[in-house]
Amino acid sequence: MKYPDTLRVELYAQCVIFANQRIANALQALRDAQEAANGEEKSSAGDKYETGRAMAHLEREKAEQQLEEAHKLIAMLNKVSSAILSDRISLGSVVITNEGNFYIAISAGKISVGEIDFIALSPVSPIGTMLLHKKAGEKILFNKQSFEILEIL
Q1: Angle, in degrees to the nearest 10, between helices 7-43 and 46-77
Q2: What local confidence, expressed as pLDDT, does residue 47 receive?
Q3: Backbone φ, ψ for residue 108 (5° rounding)
Q4: The whole model's pTM is what?
Q5: CA–CA dist 136, 28 (Å, integer)
Q6: Smallest Cα–Cα separation from 147: which of 133, 136, 8, 122?
Q7: Within 10 Å of residue 87's Cβ, how many Cβ atoms?
Q8: Which phi and psi angles does 53 have, rounded to 5°?
């Protein structure tokens, strides 16, 4: 199959959009948690006040953790180079197999470029770890399914 010359750049850009959306969602959750905490301070008293503050605090911690994870995605993407081509699978590789197509960068799920679907996955994910450093023609066995590496872009 003929793949566009800009394939790696397009996949990378979609991963950046995914990571930035995660950051935006986490920041919104932080704002919402702060507003909830502020609202509890103004309208509650006694045990209900303490429960409301505790819930808002938990929501804030959860949002902070999501924000930290999203920043880790950006940090990983900053390590990806779309210019480096290798005959072995590495960070930034596009991997074409008999069972599907993969982009080794971050775990962002299904990404489509034109009519072609890819799964963006982290190099530290179970299948990502198995694919790393393999060459075209090699096979891996994942969840009792055989993946033959047809091409590395």
Answers
A1: 170
A2: 60
A3: -120, 0
A4: 0.86
A5: 43
A6: 136
A7: 9
A8: -65, -40
Q: What is the pLDDT of residue 49?
A: 59
Determine contact, residues 92/80, Cβ cutoff 8 Å: yes
Question: Which residues, 6 or more positions from 143, have their beta carbon under 8 angstroms from its beta carbon?
Answer: none
In the 8-state DSSP scheme, what is residue 99? T
Give the pLDDT of residue 81. 81
- 34 bridge partner residues: none
Contacts of 31 (CB under 8 A, 6+ apart): none
Mean pLDDT across 82-107: 92
Which one, of 66, 60, 62, lies nearest residue 23 by Cα? 66
**Contact residues for 109 (Cβ-Cβ < 8 A; gap 6+):** 18, 119, 120
Predicted confidence (pLDDT) per residue in 42-81, tens digit: 555 556 656 777 787 898 999 999 999 999 999 999 999 8
